[in-house]
Amino acid sequence: MHYMNALKKCKYLLIILIIINIIGVAFVLSKPFPFISMDYATTDFDERNVNSNVELTDKFQEVVKNAIAISDKENISEVTRKIAEFVRTELYHDSALNLDIRGVVFEIAEIPQLCSGYSRLVVSVANTLGYDARVVWMKGHTISEIYFPEKGWVLVDTNGNLVFKNEEDEYLSLTQVTDDFSNAVPTRLSEPTDNDPDYLGNKETRVYDNNPIVVVIDGENLFDFGYRTRNLMTVTNYVLFGNPVARGVQYISNDRTRLGNARWVLLPIFILDILLLLYLIIMTRRKD
Q1: Helix (H, G, I), strand (E, B), or coil: what is residue 152?
Q2: CA-to-CA distance for 80 and 62, rounded, in angstroms?
Q3: Within its chain, how far is the Cα of 115 from the centroid?
Q4: What is the DSSP string of 245-285?
Q5: β 215-217/247-251 pair status
Q6: What residues contact 203, with CB distance under 8 A and at least 6 apart?
Q7: Inter-axis angle of helices 263-285 and 2-9, to 10 degrees?
Q8: Which of 130, 129, 162 is nearest to 144 (CA)?
Q9: N-terminal to C-terminal alpha carbon distance within the chain
Q10: Alpha helix (H) residue ranges in the chain
Q11: Cα separation of 37 and 27, whole Å?
Q12: Contacts 24+ apart (CB under 8 A), 8-17
């Protein structure tokens, strides 16, 4: 009886709070990477040591080192081409090497032969050969970048079979391409195959034109952050206690919308929920 009376007294507050919950959750889930603990970078994005370096199995490193010989480690053309060709032609379940990607790379999950899967594998191969590398997510596409001390970050689109250069034939990073797409010249990494897309031949390079999302995920959770963002316990732990689901860095020049850090939207809503629950408990224990 007390409970029903208390519920009637605060029904409008309850309705408002339900609406706030719905709007808050919808707002959070409407944007990519909501539960990533995101840092933000502007013009210093390419200068910062933001990479996706990963820990690799001995088996994977052995296979890569035996398969790829680099004669000049600063030769960007040779390095990017050999890494991309190896990933595109050898890292399949039915490849000549008969590799099981789950056992070779991380022993935790299969890597799909999509742009994000290719990019993770490029980072893994590049790390094995001694290069810093990172996976960069965009809206509708994912690529990798490899770091060369004399040049900086170089975009490698293994799925699309692309790199980009400027008019001086210098290799470009992703931010250089997205910020000045009209002056970026797409160039094939290698000859196209029947198995993979060819963005240059299919004229699909417009995905790079001022793409609104440029996000790097830290290597510690590179292979499992998708699962972790769907795990209720992991997300709850993040919202309540701030324990990261995964860490990332977003490039936010050109008025890009900031992503991630949804904790600061959800935590106040959760606190309001708790306060209302406490209020209901108190009201039910009061005498008429």
Answers
A1: strand
A2: 19
A3: 11
A4: S-EEEEE-TTTPPP---THHHHHHHHHHHHHHHHHHHHHHH
A5: antiparallel
A6: none
A7: 130
A8: 162
A9: 10
A10: 2-9, 11-29, 58-67, 76-90, 101, 115-128, 174-179, 225-229, 232-241, 263-285
A11: 17
A12: 9/283, 10/276, 10/279, 10/280, 10/283, 13/276, 14/276, 17/272, 17/273, 17/276
The tokens of 31 are what?
A: 């944007």
pLDDT of residue 103: 47
Q: What percent of the chain has pLDDT over 90?
A: 40
User: Is residue 37 within 8 Å of residue 246, measured between CB atoms?
Assistant: yes
Return the residue matching tokens 């050898």.
90
pLDDT tens digits for 143-186?
Answer: 999 999 989 999 999 888 899 999 999 999 999 999 899 999 99
For the question of whether the overall pTM of this predicted structure is more than 0.85, the answer is no
Q: Are 204 and 197 in contact, with CB atoms under 8 Å apart?
A: yes
Residue 67's alpha-carbon distances to 81, 106, 173, in angstroms, are: 13, 19, 27
